[in-house]
Amino acid sequence: MRECRNAGMQECGNAGMLECRNGVGLLLILVEWFLLFTYIFFSMKYLIVGLGNIGDEYADTRHNIGFIAVDALAQNFKTTFEVGRLASVARMSLKGRTLVAIKPTTYMNLSGKAVRYWMQKEDIPRENVLVIVDDLALPLGALRLKSKGSDGGHNGLISIIETIESSEFARLRIGIGSDFAKGYQVDYVLGRWTAEETKTLIPRIETTVELIKSFVLIGTERTMNFFNKK
């Protein structure tokens, strides 16, 4: 009977240990699935930032090309911007991915505040952020996407880099040309588009919308290879 009792206790102990191991294994699997789901969920959200200045006096100016680009994006998705904290915000969905487009209401020099707030609020990582800015050094309508880089002297980028403490985020520079006399750079940048410039710009903004979609769907590098050549 003693042997039987010992054998029974051993079997019971082994069974208990096996159940314990199975329970721990199941728990680990659940944790792994939870972490994977969390990673996938948050990696499917993208912050699209169009830089510019608020106010009627800045509407449709060259410096506000970022605003123009995200306005076109929202129009393409048949949605509109709503007032949010530090920015106007529009939400869109593209093949299971969520796009959060913002137009900072902080003015250009404090754009970083809006970017940091919405990155934190939406739990969007830097690699899923795209900032759209104007660039004097590029011909009108030229598009140049980069995965990271310097501020290039652009006040909006300076603010973002200083505020989020990193320059490792994608930025799309849209050329506004440099057809101005010496000493008139500020007037040119804050000036409105001419009729001829608008004709050139319209198809380039349409291409910009497709570039943004590509950035979301296939990433920065492949999008660069395709669109930077256009």
What can you tell me about this protein's structure?
This protein has 230 residues and is α/β, with parallel strands linked by helices. The chain folds into 2 domains: 1-43; 45-227, Rossmann fold. 49% of the residues lie in helices and 18% in strands. The chain is built from 7 helices and 7 strands. The chain has helices at 2-43, 65-76, 111-122, 155-164, 185-189, 195-218, 220-227; strands at residues 45-50, 82-84, 87-94, 97-104, 129-135, 143-146, 170-175. It has a 7-stranded mixed β-sheet, sandwiched between helices. A hairpin with a 2-residue loop joins strand 3 (87-94) and strand 4. The protein starts with a helix and ends with a helix. The model is unreliable at 34-42 (pLDDT under 50).
Topology (elements, then pairings):
Layout: H1 2-43, E1 45-50, H2 65-76, E2 82-84, E3 87-94, E4 97-104, H3 111-122, E5 129-135, E6 143-146, H4 155-164, E7 170-175, H5 185-189, H6 195-218, H7 220-227
Parallel strand pairs: 1-4, 1-5, 5-7
Antiparallel strand pairs: 2-3, 3-4, 6-7
Helix pairs in contact: 2-6, 3-4, 6-7
